[in-house]
Request: fold
Amino acid sequence: MEKHKIIMTGGGSAGHVTPNLALIPKLKMLGYEIEYIGTKEGIERKIIEGENIKYFPISSGKLRRYFDFKNFTDPLKVIKGIFEAKKIIKMEKPDIVFSKGGFVSVPVVLAAFFNKVPVIAHECDITPGLANRLVSPYCTKVCVTFPEALKELKNGKGVVTGNPIRHELFEGDKIKGNHICGFKDKKPVLMIIGGSLGSKVINEIIRAKLDKLLLEYNVIHICGSGNIDKSLQNKDGYKQFDYIKDELPHLLASADIVVSRAGANVIFELLALRKPNLLIPLSAKASRGDQILNARSFEKSGYSMVIQDEDLTPENVEMKIKELYNDKNKYIENMNNSNTEKSIDLIVELIEKYRKR
Reply:
């Protein structure tokens, strides 16, 4: 089998890494040697090194849309990162670079462009993030998840591929999931996902209503790094995790309904797994509003129930959870009509088509 090399990049949050993980088994099957360029301290380093993939750390500054004194120093880190990435790419000689976005991707994509290496990027939200906006002129093609995103890209660079879903998510075992959590009774399972960094407001609201929720459900709470409440560690029917990797397929299998932020990766995973969900998108005050658009699109398609950040109260969330559980079959039926299975093949076809010959 002919050997090809791909360098992947993307970081800042787990959302910029998990789609890369979804592509890796197929790329390995096709004989690709896979390497990764990421930040020195980002979450992507731990995840990727855990997959035994060669990892190259570079300097990277964060791209901000708001005032911060670091805006004066971080461009220097980006410039340093470009030179570091350029050296790595020149040395490693990949046939193609795949970028999942996040601020680390900017120096990597520019370095690939300067080294005349083709780049395929992926944008999971309806409106491209700042990193992907900056690098799209230097990309060969940009894969998008939502058809609405095509109008944001010029020169016909956009290709609708959907969001790649990791195959292992479909291999979860409900009984194993309940065993991991130590659930003793047969109550339905409510899963709370606040994103890889957690959500303070969602954590507080769920814990404020925890005793009432536990009358009806067993609760799995992915609360983000540093957000475990030690006073609730031994509460029957309640299991907290800061971040989950290997056990996630089993926990998702055991979940009957899910409350989640509305990042594109997680909502497409919930759609693929047919999990009825209540989405709480990150507000426009705390983000560029991409989660609001993602949630609106899913609500319109009948895949999700949505509650906005500004409408959050413990009572409101409790009421919506009850409504979601009562209507869960309606949401499952709508999700059964979606087509989410071909994304990995479509993206890998583009990688195969545009890599160096």
Observations:
- The first strand starts at residue 4 and ends at 9.
- The two ends are 15 Å apart (CA to CA).
- Residues 133 and 153 are 9 Å apart (CA to CA).
